[in-house]
Amino acid sequence: MASLLEFIKEKHRTTPLWIKALAPVLLLGGLAVFAVTGAVTAFVITAWLGQPIPVLGFDQTVKQPIAFPHTIHAGTGLFPSTGLPGQFIDGLEMDCTFCHRTVTSQANAGVPPVALCSYCHKVIGPEENPELAKLRKAAGLTEEDPSPINWKRVHRLPDHVRFVHEPHIRYLTQHPSEIRNAAPGVNQLSEALPSQVCSTCHGDVASMLEVKQVEALKMGQCVDCHRENEAPTDCTVCHH
């Protein structure tokens, strides 16, 4: 033991000062690299299996150019106004197909044109609401030049994946028991409305002030759902 202590003392005495100063830096640097590598690995694995961890901008929702409250349009009850703090508005309980008109007949759900929004809001809603002012400007209802609304996509699948809304809406409408994330009692219906089946993939949008992605929408989830409902699982069903 004494010889070991002597050896350590000798090495400490003969080791250059710059090596002594560099050693802690290398140690801390190694720990930092290990921590960053571990964090990146955990992020990639999590994103592969489910949704990305909501950090560094990987949130499950996005800020839209105009605040569109699904709570007021599709919900029931009183909800806060997005443009006028402190004010509350009754939910209109509108069906999803009023705006997303192609969801029951085509591949995509369809984004409502500005004209559809302005048809109501050229007379509905106070002028002092800044969000409605943006809409009216975009629709050409003011003296300013109209401009398109660049809505931002929330739910996105890879380009090589083909998802057709129509058969999913049709099946779940006829089989309410298979609907997920539904309001109480929907699963006991003999036939559901299109707006009641959307929750399976999109969650309870009617309660969201800002739409966010609630399901991972990964391949495993889709394949499991197809198997449970005896739908085809051949690769060409979903992939180009």
What's the β-strand tally? Answer: 2
Please estimate the helix content: 40-55%
Number of contiguous helices: 10
Query: Unreliable segments (pLDDT under 50, ≥5 consecutive)?
Result: none
Helix vs. strand class: mainly alpha
Largest sheet: 2 strands, antiparallel
- The N- to C-terminal Cα distance equals 71 Å
Q: Averaging pLDDT over every residue, what do you get? A: 86
Amount of beta strand? under 5%
- Oligomerization state: single chain
Strand order of the largest sheet: 1-2
Q: What is the overall shape?
A: extended
Order of helices and strands: HHHEEHHHHHHH
Computed over alpha carbons, the radius of gyration is 28 Å
Task: Give a verbal description of the structure.
- With 240 residues, this protein is an all-alpha fold.
- Among the domains are: 2-49; 64-75 and 93-111 and 155-240, no CATH class.
- The protein is 42% helix and 2% strand.
- It has ten helices and two strands.
- It has helices at 2-14, 17-49, 70-74, 114-121, 130-138, 165-174, 194-197, 199-202, 219-228, 235-238, and strands at 78-80, 88-90.
- Strands 1-2 form a two-stranded antiparallel ribbon.
- A hairpin with a 7-residue loop joins strand 1 (78-80) and strand 2 (88-90).
- Helix 4 (114-121) crosses helix 5.
- The longest helix is centred in the N-terminal third of the chain and has 33 residues, at 17-49.
- It is extended, with a radius of gyration of 28 Å.
- The N and C termini lie far apart (71 Å).
- The mean pLDDT is 86.
